[in-house]
Amino acid sequence: MDSTRQKKIGKLLQRDISEMFQREARDVTMGAMVSVTIVRVSSDLGVAKVYLSIFPSEKADEIYKTITDSSSRLRYLLGVRVGKQVRIIPELHFYLDDSLDYLDNIDRLLKND
Fold this sequence. Notes:
Order of helices and strands: HHEEHHEH
CATH superfamily: K homology (KH) domain
Distance between the termini: 40 Å
Number of helices: 5
Oligomer: single chain
Largest sheet: 3 strands, mixed
Strand content: 15-25%
C-alpha cells in the first residue's frame, strides 16, 4: 500500500516526466507519442517505476530500448525540474504499459463474434 507521500511524489514525477517527453526529450521518443500512464515510487523514494504507453505500438520496442538506454540523461533532466521539491531524485525504471493494446484486442475479438 502506497503512502500519501509516495502517491504525491508519483503524481509529481508523472507530470514532469510527461512534460519532459513532450519538450526536452523529443530525440528519445523519435516522433512517437509517449504517455506516462503511472509512476510508482518505492517506500524510500529512491526508485520510481515509470509505466509508458507508446503510440504507434509497432515502434514501441525500439523506442522503449532508446528510452531505457538514456535513463541516466532523463534522470538528470528530471533532477533539474524537481530538484527543489524532492530531496532524492529517484532512479528511473521504465516498463511498457500494454493495457491499451490488450483492450484493443478484446474489442476486436468481441466485434468478430
